[in-house]
# Entry
Amino acid sequence: QVQLKESGGGLVQAGGSLRLSCAASGRTASITNMGWFRQAPGKEREFVVAISWSGGNTYYADSVKGRFTISRDNAKNTVYLQMNSLKPEDTAVYYCAAKPGGLAAYKYWGQGTQVTVSS
# Structure
């Protein structure tokens, strides 16, 4: 099992920045990819960004390219999401997720952290 704990959400004005963190514990050696997803009120959960744990390859949703940056610290088993130039439409609960090797889908999820961007 892998446990994920997010932190860093909050309220920010449009144009501002926030940094989210996701600390993984447990069987972290099994992780091949980690990602961030978000869910706005009344909408389905959507993919935001992902990073491969070994090579550091990154994948971004078009809606956040150029504004969000994902990074990792393997020694700390932590993934970060730097969010700049935030927009009101970025308001959502942000979830960290981890994918073990051999699986197509993300198996482990954090509890989520609220990000609210005011206009």
About this structure: The two ends are 40 Å apart (CA to CA). The chain has no helices and eleven strands. The chain has a mean pLDDT of 95. The CA atoms of residues 48 and 62 lie 9 Å apart.
